[in-house]
């Protein structure tokens, strides 16, 4: 068995690590492995854990791992580090604690980093989740550090999104959180033993009450947790599983997976189209002279790109049957 | 004069707002205006202001506006709100203060939001900076809220990147900051009257000392500011201007602008290529059946997209001359 994809299907951690590295690096072997793994990757419950820096997400993930292991579930963790384009995937201090689980053969933990390309991190994380699901991890926890765009991506990737808040954050962070309220399926106020918890809960309940709720829709629960003591963590796990069951009963789990496949297909299609035509565009003599003119500000980049592509497009062939 | 681009060149704020809205919405009229404005948009000093939530960036920007206005400079401000895909561009509380400058005809302030597309915010902000430069704003301040990927984008957009720190942030945020150290041209410890400033400064100096510095390179200064009293703000403005002068003397300002044009050209080219071929791909009967198979998990999305694009590509024409 020399094929890493085959070895992943038998639960090999080292091969999973290898394939995820290929995915991060944009190595073609990553795509080859994904083709093989994709049919086996549809059965994990992907749970996104998101919230502002300092909310104790890593400690909460650590506690969730212990809780899910206690239920004999195989767990995968992807810790997304958006700062890593610069820090080259350095492991954050808070995440060190989590590594105590890494000697458990039923737990796979990986920090996700990506160099360069925007949007690449969400894509790589989504693909890494396919790898972990194919390896047989029944739950995949995806933790993001950061505020903003990351939440959107996690929400698209996950079946269940947990939004973690914390008492006593400043106004600016609270305002930011308003944006992610709409993507949360489960809300947790972590560090619930800290002062200000009542206020935070009241504030969140007020904002949740403004969400449009249609009949038959999921009602997002709001829970209190103290990650470092484990308080509230079983209830948090229950809430996530209840949400998955809700999706399953309503046929939405399958729909979500179908939609995810469709999204990957469309994104790839765009990418491969760009690649195929871009290669031709870049070979053309017009490309070099237009690029020079753009750099010298003799032409604006919009007109330059349009003229090059329209010259290519008129020569394009017919659609295939 | 019915053309908004023409009116922007004469300093019309309303037209600038209109064109920026088109840009955010992906309206074609935005591109048409940009083609017109681009040749006039190369002369502003774009300063990115970045750092973790709660560092007081908005207050610092507010103080910088006052300082730069005192030097008779025309100022544009783009406040980037990455949470806005959900919150629909809500103005954050801290940014309300800044609006006191909005009655000054020499100051233009805009919150940047974008719906949907990833990477769209950086692109729209970059294009809005072109609009403000063409309107005659001599300095454009670009403020981001958020930690992570946003910093990368601001650094690519700005001539000068100011990284704002603050005393007493938690470990997680400090670790995140390690990633953005490498993009900073000027470092400011804001709220320098708060306890813990010495420690933060020591910590930052230690990290900056590890940066590889080649002879003839810019040495990033580290300053203390108290934005709400204005302390240290003139020195911060001086440092930014000194950095721009450094870039100008070394010929790097021109090179940075040429690179920016090149980046826009390449990104557009990829986009237009994708668009041109994607339209053909989506029209083909093979597209519908492959999409159905992907949704039903009968084929993986990678193989599906590849087979569709390779069928299209072999029928493509020659490169234009």
What do you see in this structure?
- The structure is a homodimer of 321-residue chains.
- The first copy, chain A, has a seven-stranded parallel β-sheet with strand order 3-2-4-1-5-6-7, sandwiched between helices.
- In chain A, helix 2 crosses helix 3 (28-37) and helix 4 (57-70) packs across helix 11.
- The first copy, chain A, is built from 14 helices and seven strands.
- The first copy, chain A, has two domains: 42-250, P-loop containing nucleotide triphosphate hydrolases (Rossmann fold), CATH 3.40.50.300; 264-313, no CATH class.
- Chain A is an alpha/beta fold.
- In chain A, helix 10 links the parallel strand 6 and strand 7 (222-224).
- Chain A has helices at residues 4-9, 13-25, 28-37, 57-70, 84-87, 93-96, 120-134, 149-157, 171-180, 197-209, 233-249, 252-283, 285-295, 301-313; strands at 45-50, 75-80, 107-112, 139-144, 160-165, 186-189, 222-224.
- At the A-B interface, helix 3, helix 5, helix 8, helix 9 and helix 12 of A face helix 3, helix 5, helix 8, helix 9 and helix 12 of B.
